[in-house]
């Protein structure tokens, strides 16, 4: 007879079983049967060779699932696990029965494996249930494998414990496989992916399906404590708020710590932050924090609270008299070297002001400003408003116009507050123009009038401020009488120019004197040398008369 023949079918597909027999000429009919476990036959399909009719036996599990073709190929739809039997094709003649057996194997691909009952976290040095890998509805049953970062996890006592179990559904005869993993984690397992797979057999051979990755939070104890200061400890100044932040490198991080302030041996229990408000310079020192249950695990940091004090003496509004002395001091006290800048009327001064004899131009608004450049916002400033007062001082000058038709009379006045000027003329003469005043600068200004006196007149200039009233008079000859003019008062700006010119003239004169002195010394040395040479010549000639003449000439030359 024919040997064993196997048909592999996937669960739910149609099983197709050829009869594998040659149809004889005198065939009467063909039949299909399957054998029970005890070997007894169960007939399921019949087909007559003459009537071409097909009959299916009343077998409940195959009701409406069978189809027998003309060549006696049997098809069974919707393959089930229970279809795994030994089927036999029978062709019957009048004198013989031919049989061809076929074995059916049904395979069911399991569901994609899934990691369930996952641990919310794993803990170092603790053997803990990681999760279960489940794959359902497999036939035949499959094997489950665990992986860490793509590498197979092998059982290891106390570190990797794997428990595998399978269960068959009595109705569908499909298997569900479950593999439980207990695992002792280390810090190396942080962000490590865990997966599992199921390996099963299908119609075409062995196959493997993998689960999705699972990553677990790894808990581990704190091994180091660090302390932070907010804001940056290089920029803390008086009045700031300081926040100390303590951190532990464990997972989860500690939620509470002990904070130690300078000079306080007992720690203050707090969350991971501790705030000091409105700190002063005496808060400078070492700050520490530690774990509550392990005080030896401690961290420390040094904090400097920067400060800056400025004292200006005198300050505010100060009124002095012209010519007075006024010492000014700006004293700085700071946590480190500070820069000091003096300003007068918003213009930076090259050095600190000092007044041995106050002048009107010394008046103004002085500011002493200091700052710590490394500490943002730490700067101080104080101001001195200096007022220089003086009684009115008057000087009068006169000048004749080159045309000889008018004279200009000028009243120069110094004083502060600004004196008011009034003119009085005694005598006859026309005033060509009204009094004209110059700008008031550094306590000085002038008023001038132009007159054409017909006779000798007296002009009186009165200057008055809150301190005093000063009067000065000047006699002016008639326009027809020539007289000596007095020079105008030199202004501050012109005075500086004159001083510069005087310095230049003095320099030129000194240079010329030095040059003349050098020329004289050179000339004297030259003549002395010439005299010595003449004496040597006289001795050689031996002529006394000529020697006398030469000496006379030499004396004249020296003279």
From TrEMBL:
The chain crosses the membrane at residues 504-526. InterPro entries: CD80_C2-set (IPR013162), Ig-like_dom (IPR007110), Ig-like_dom_sf (IPR036179), Ig-like_fold (IPR013783), Ig_sub (IPR003599), Ig_sub2 (IPR003598), Ig_V-set (IPR013106), Surface_Rcpt/Adhesion_Mol (IPR051116). SMART domains: IG, IGc2, IGv. The keyword Transmembrane applies. GO terms for biological process: adaptive immune response; cell adhesion. Pfam families: C2-set_2, Ig_3. One of its GO terms (cellular component) is plasma membrane. Keywords: Adaptive immunity, Cell adhesion, Cell membrane, Cell projection, Disulfide bond, Glycoprotein, Immunity, Immunoglobulin domain, Membrane, Repeat, Signal, Transmembrane, Transmembrane helix. It comes from Crocuta crocuta. Homodimer. Interacts (via extracellular domain) with CD6 (via extracellular domain). Homodimerization and interaction with CD6 involve the same region and cannot occur simultaneously. The affinity for CD6 is much higher than the affinity for self-association. Interacts (via glycosylated extracellular domain) with LGALS1 and LGALS3. Interaction with LGALS1 or LGALS3 inhibits interaction with CD6. It is a single-pass type I membrane protein. It is found in: Cell membrane; Cell projection, Axon; Cell projection, Dendrite. It comes from the Eukaryota. Residues 113-210, 221-304, 323-385, 392-477 form the Ig-like domain. This is CD166 antigen.
